[in-house]
Amino acid sequence: MKALLLTLLLLAGAARADDAQLDARTHALAQQLRCLVCQNQTIADSHAPLALDLKNRVRDQLAAGKTEAQVIDDLTAKYGDFVLYNPPVKPTTWLLWAGPALLGLGALAGLAWTLRRRAQQPAAAFEPDPEDGEELR
Amino acid sequence: MKLKALLPLLAFGLLALLLARGLQLNPREIPSPLIDKPAPAFELAALHEGKPALTSAALQGRVTLLNVWASWCTPCQQEHPLLVDFAKRQPGVQLVGLNYKDQREAAQTWLRRLGDPYHAIGFDERGQLGIEFGVYGVPETFVIDRQGRIRFKHVGPLTAELMRERIEPLLKQL
C-alpha cells in the first residue's frame, strides 16, 4: 500500500516536472516569436487570441517531440520571417543590422573631417563678419 | 549658384522620395510565404450541419476563391456584398468560405441576414486551419488554382477596385 502511494506520488512529481520543463521551453520559444496582431509584442506577452493559439501550437508541438528549430520552421513556413521577433541575419537584413553602426561611424567620420578642416583654417576665418556700415577694428 | 548650395535641396529631394514611397507601404502587412505553394491538406466540418465536410480535395480541379470570415468581424460585413455579387457573376469559380473562430449559431444567422454566396463553408472553430493558411486577421481572401496552389492572398476586406484590377484578371489566367 505504501509502495503504491509512493509510486503514485513519484509519478505525479515526475509528470509535474515534465510539465514544468515543457512550460519553460514553450515560454522560451514564445519570447522569440512575434505576435502578428500586436506586432510589437512577442506571443509570450501578447493577449491577442492569435498569440494564445500560437503559444498552444508551440506547446503541443514541443510536447509531441518536435525540436525548437522544427517549431520555428513550421511557423516561418506559414507567416514568413516576420514571425521571428529578432530578424534573422540574411543578406536582405544586413543593412538592417549594420545600419545603426554604419550611421554612427558615418557621423563620427563627418565630425572628424569637419574638425580637421576647421583646425586648418587661419584664425581670421573665425572672426565675425563686419556689420553693414561698420569696419572691422 | 554654387553647386554646394544645391546639396541641401538634393538631400531634401532624395529624402522626400524615400518618405513618399514609405507612405505608400503598409508596415503592418505581412506578405505570405505560401504564394505558389500548395494549399495545406485539411478536412473541416461544414458550418451547416448535415453538409459534407470541406476537404482540400475540393480545391483540386477548379479555381477557388477562399474567403476567411467571421460573424464578429465588421470589415467582413463590408466586403460581403462583393462576394454575393461575385458568386452570381462568376459561377465557374468556386467560392469557399472559412468560418474562423466563430460560433455556428452566430455565423448561420449572419449568413441568413446578409446572404450565403459560398459553395461550401468550413467551420474552423479553433482557428487551427487558419494558422495553416497563415491567417492573422479577418477577413483574408486567397486565390487557389486548379492544382490546389495558393496564387494570391489579400489581407483585409475586398474592394471593388481590388476585384477588378487584381483578382479577376488573375482568375482569367488560371
Q: What would you say this structure looks like, in words?
A:
The complex is a heterodimer of chains A (137) and B (174). By secondary structure, chain A is mostly helical. Chain A is built from four helices and no strands. Chain A has helices at 2-30, 49-63, 68-79, 94-120. The mean pLDDT of chain A is 89. The radius of gyration of chain B is 20 Å and the shape is elongated. Chain B has a five-stranded mixed beta sheet. A two-stranded antiparallel ribbon of chain B has the order 1-2. In chain B, strand 6 (140-144) and strand 7 (150-155) form a beta hairpin. The longest helix of chain B is centred in the N-terminal third of the chain and has 22 residues, at 3-24. Chain B has five helices and seven strands; from the N terminus they run H-E-E-E-H-E-H-E-H-E-E-H. Chain B has 174 residues and is α/β, with parallel strands linked by helices.
Instruction: Please tell me how large the radius of gyration of chain B is.
Output: 20 Å
N-end to C-end Cα span of chain B: 58 Å
Q: What form of chain A results from the Cα inertia axes?
A: elongated
Q: What is the number of helices of chain A?
A: 4
What overall form of chain B do the CA principal axes indicate? elongated
Summarize the main sheet of chain A: none
Summed up:
The complex is a heterodimer of chains A (137) and B (174). By secondary structure, chain A is mainly α.
Name some characteristics of this structure.
heterodimer, A: 137 residues, mainly alpha, 4 helices, B: 174 residues, alpha/beta, five-stranded mixed sheet, two-stranded antiparallel ribbon, 5 helices, elongated
